[in-house]
Amino acid sequence: MAWFVLVLSGMLETVWAAALDRSAGLSRPLPAALFGVTLVLSMSGLGYALRTIPVGTGYAVWVGIGVVVTAVYGMVSLGEPASLPRIGCLLLVVAGVAGLKFL
User: Fold this and answer.
1) pLDDT, tens digit (0-9, with 9 covering 90-100), for 51-100
2) CB 90 within 8 A of CB 72
3) Total H helices, total E strands in the chain
4) Mind telling me which residue stretches traverse the membrane in this protein (predicted)?
């Protein structure tokens, strides 16, 4: 259960990052509220998962998921560059996160 919550919390990191971007410096109420709610949920899930997952592994997995999903969101939805070197670097992050989980 802890791993499921950790993965979900990592994905929520993407939601709060996108909401923060859309909030225009927290000046738009709806995106700012979404940012706040998803930030609290994401951190709470991380805290729950760290009850049973070692902090180094859990935090790295949480951040890695957030980094990869947020970068892909930026490439797909926001027109950010999707070059082969960038995609290769994201695959290295995925490999590192998978290594932490399985080794």
Assistant:
1) 999 999 999 999 999 999 999 999 999 999 999 999 999 999 999 988 88
2) yes
3) 4, 0
4) 33-50, 57-76, 82-100
Q: Are 12 and 65 in contact, with CB atoms under 8 Å apart?
A: no
* Both tokens assigned to 40: 């609290």
Instruction: Please determine, for residue 27, whether its predicted confidence score (pLDDT) is greater than 90.
Output: yes
Task: Report d(CA 11, CA 2) in Å as an integer.
Answer: 14
In b/e form, how buried is each residue of 44-58, taking b as 16+ CB within 10 angstroms?
ebbebbbeebeeebb
Side-chain-facing half-sphere of 11: CA atoms under 13 Å: 6
Place of tokens 């027109």: 79
- State the Cα–Cα distance between residues 55 and 50, nearest whole angstrom: 6
